[in-house]
Amino acid sequence: MPHHTPLIATIVAGLVLAFIFAAIAVRLRVSPLIGYLAAGVVVGPFTPGYVADQSLANELAEMGVILLMFGVGLHFSVRDLLSVRKIAIPGALVQIGVATLLGMGLAFMLGWSLVAGIVFGLALSVASTVVLLRALQERKILDTERGKIAVGWLIVEDLVMVLALVLIPAMAAGQGGNFGWAIGITVLKVAAFFAFMLIVGRRVIPWALHEIAHTGSRELFRLAVLAIALGVAFGAAKLFGVSFALGAFFAGMILAESPFSQRAAQETLPLRDAFAVLFFVSVGMLFNPNILFSHPVALAATVAIIILGKSIAAYFIVRAFGRSHSTGLVISASLAQIGEFSFILATLGASLALLPPDGRNLILAGAIITIMLNPFIFALIDRFTVMEAKDSAPLPAAPRDKRHIVLVGYGRVGNLVGKGLLAAGEAVTVIETENDIEGLPSIDEAQIVIGNAADPHVLVWAELDRAKMLFVAIPDTFEAGQIVEQARAINAELPIVARAHSDEEVAYLTARGATRTIMGEREIAQRMIADAKAVA
Hints:
With about 525 residues, this protein is mostly helical. It folds into 2 domains: about 5-55 and about 65-175 and about 275-390, Na+/H+ antiporter like fold (Up-down Bundle), CATH 1.20.1530.20; about 405-535, NAD(P)-binding Rossmann-like Domain (Rossmann fold). It is built from 22 helices and 6 strands. The chain starts with 5 loop residues before the first helix and ends with a helix.
């Protein structure tokens, strides 16, 4: 007779179903977060069939929160924030204020308390780190001005939410009338924790990691990073009375100053991802799908606040700071969803009886719907920005005598292709990123466009609509597919040649619109066979 193992059953059911539903979500070109949440709904108490152990799921979720917040702290960049501080800091604060007020207004209409309205509004005000970064990475605009503003904006939102995680328990403790006293005690505890981490942790943590790294043991290094993340989070809660989340965030932020921070992030990524998945599954278990039918108007209003209220506020803020229409649209689309911090706030608010169950369900349903809609919102934004780019594209530096060939990437392969085309007397436009301008042909030989070809603006500036051929010579097949897709949208008749490394990549690029895809290994094999036949 097998032993009853609720912990193993909960982990296995959560991970297996999360994988299945996430694979379906990716296939449908939506965020895998939807799949993780759907897995939680399936094993939750509000749907028929197997029900996972809720108390164990909540403890696994706490581990997920610790590792999620540790990852946020590990990637926290003061430099990135300072580079766009003039727009990101006031912009994010005003946008959070607008969204919070809108959420409080809806809460008031639903008859909730003031504190419930604040928690609800804050949960609707913060975008998902995972969804936002993935959207920017897919469009290869993370390193552009628009991407840096969005990331800086996100950092400010995260910092505000970290502060909220500190103050919300104090609000719960002060509901009996001692609110000021509860806030004061909380601030003192947080200040003591900050002082301890800055005086002791800032010296001990990097030193310990440095010593462990020099042992040469990868296992010990990985264990040290996890011990720091979990140990600081647990110690912060037990010794200073602050949340696990704040302790983990600060541990990550301290560790980010170490020269081993990048390695630490890589070594702990698999475990962080696994527990993050279990966190989202546990959140899905809390979701009651009945909210879709019992409160359709409130749900529609919640979604409208997230997609319209936040986005419109962000757009006008960006425009007020003198940024372009396309930058405003990109920032608006980036913020038109909610995610991890929203779930953490909803779970915390519900556990402290500050937020009614309907409030948590509205937040979860709003997150699921807006995360699903976000790719479509970005697709609309991409169309508008392409049209704007066509209207505002600069004139070429010199008139062309004949139609040109556009070459994306001037690396090992692109360099050979470019030299061959120039030697043949072709008019060539080379597109290359700022980080790879070494070795480009002179402006007398070819026209040079600096930027990422996955950005439709860059393709328009390269006059792709007037080109006679496009060569995509970069090795990254996923990025090449994005470029091919954008190029095909701009010029439906353009011959496009791309490089690949496998039959699967050939199929992927062909499906995206490549006219011909060349696989290096196949060309080498065919040449060898031809040489063998010539000898025979």
